[in-house]
Amino acid sequence: MVHDRPPQPARVAPQPDRVRPTAPPDLVESLRSAQRAGGWRGLGFNVDDCQKTYEELRAKGVEFVQAPLARPYGSEAVCRDDSGNWIVLIETVDPTMPAATATRS
């Protein structure tokens, strides 16, 4: 077969469902299932230092709806992704520590 035009490079459309997640497969499937059912609205991440992580992400352009606040369990900061899902950064503390040293200001 003879072609009148030069070969074109192959083009592959992005396939979001083919992204290789780094989370355990059972967690990924659970999140995908909840998202398909319309029940997944947020995700929490444990961080070592909520204030530091908040500052690093803000410097990269992430807009937060709540700056880090002290809570009985530690501190948390909240932002939303482009789809409106809540993302919570959580720094937990040892509940056996005295309250004065358990949370950051």
Automatic annotation (TrEMBL):
It holds the Pfam family Glyoxalase. InterPro entries: Glyas_Bleomycin-R_OHBP_Dase (IPR029068), Glyas_Fos-R_dOase_dom (IPR004360), VOC_core (IPR037523). Residues 1-25 are annotated as: Disordered. Residues 1-92 form the VOC domain. Transmembrane segments: none annotated. This is VOC domain-containing protein. It comes from Frondihabitans sucicola. The lineage of its organism: Bacteria, Bacillati, Actinomycetota, Actinomycetes, Micrococcales.
